[in-house]
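ASSEMBLY PREDICTION REQUEST
Request ID: AP-0331
Submitted by: J.K., bench scientist
Number of chains: two
Total residues: 494
Priority: normal
Notes: Please return the full assembly, not individual chains.
Input sequences:
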Amino acid sequence: MELKRVVVTGLGALTPIGNNIEEYWDGLVNGKSGAAPITHFDAAKFKTRFACELKGFDVNDFIHRKEARKMDKFTQYAMVVADEAIINSKLDVKNVDPDRVGVIWGCGIGGIDTFEQQVVEYAHGDGTPKFNPFFIPKMIADIAPGHISIKYGFRGPNFTTVSACASSANAIIDALNYIRLGHADVIVTGGSEASVTGAAMGGFNALHALSQNNDNPESASRPFDKSRDGFVMGEGGGALILEEYEHAVARGAKIYCEVAGGGLSADAYHLTAPHPEGLGATKVMLNCLQNAGLKPEDVDAVNMHGTSTPLGDVAELKAVQKVFGEHAYNLNINSTKSMTGHLLGAAGAIEAIASVLAMEHGMVPPTINHVELDENIDPKLNLTINKAQKREVKVAMSNTFGFGGHNACVLFKKLED
Amino acid sequence: MSDIASRVKAIIVDKLGVDENEVTAEASFTNDLGADSLDTVELIMEFEKEFDIQIPDDQAENIGTVGQAVSFIEGAK
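STATUS: Completed
Returned structure:
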């Protein structure tokens, strides 16, 4: 059976550096930092007291209060970005065959804020369970695509992928493969996360995963820099409309690019630490190239997982050098997490969007907050330090890796005329 | 309007996102006020909390309108 081709026809974003696609891109190319002191809860006693929260976002501008209160924030973010992407794609939702449209979403954790509130309330009571009937359907990680399907009546494949910080890259790859195999013509994919909460921050602090640079929140996310000390928590979401090529052409859709392929692997090494030599990372980039039918030399830009942790950044760059050899020096390598922070299960989505937009605009967003290179990193690599670089990007790679050792990699390719 | 009725009304307005003038004694939660099965369960729980009463499931099934809720609560107090 011949696989169908899959293209990107719509985008939506809600991020700490911009509340829609236009603002997000503006933030990316201008090297804007999304980090600031935490406002969502009282973090006074926390080791980390800053994060990349959304700015100036009021859910009531997008969703009726009656509906919004039945959703955890991660689902609210999903609804907002899915709407933007669907509008951006100009898909005629009333006349499209609803059985051929799916929603495959990525989310690493789910409604942790809801879980926390309900359990705290229970703990403060006399032992009588008084859980809200919306507790479970607000919290469960699969509910976001459920809500999107109910709003639009999309009856195709519908589920959430969970692989920690690789979740939404897994969602994109699943969407790619289901369309390739003919299960759907259009899939709304992407991911969302809302983990700037006491339990999430406290839990990640306990793992020593978060930066504790409370004196310099704006510049704390500094991938590849010698003084990096952990990732900065982010929140938000990103959506992409993936569509079968002929379907997109037939309706005259704007095609951003082709989704050339997806790679999947596991480190099989440790719960939270990456393999020190980047074994799983190497394998995932290689099998992604193979899946896309591309050679390493075809790739122009790599948006790294690059979370700003001491171990992860070095291991991933080792993997890049193994995969690309001498061509690694020709690549534009960047980590947009330096600006957005780490959106966990939504990272793969907003970073895929950054790759798609880099191709669209011929510009690679920077890795900001860079002062001094780590001596374990090859200085000849172009890490797109501090300023966006003009570059015609024909093929872009996006890496995401999750706790548990899950690795996912996606390749986007400009359509050849 | 009794104190109980006005408190019941306030809960319904808050949880169902409806206008105050829609919340008449005859209004049905599901048919008139747009509640689904989960909304109805939540309303019953909110009544229990607000008025510090217990509404057993078999009796909750008989509370389908605003007026029925007010009567039940008045009887339980």
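REVIEWER COMMENTS: Chain A touches chain B through ten residues (CB under 8 Å).
SIGN-OFF: pending second reviewer
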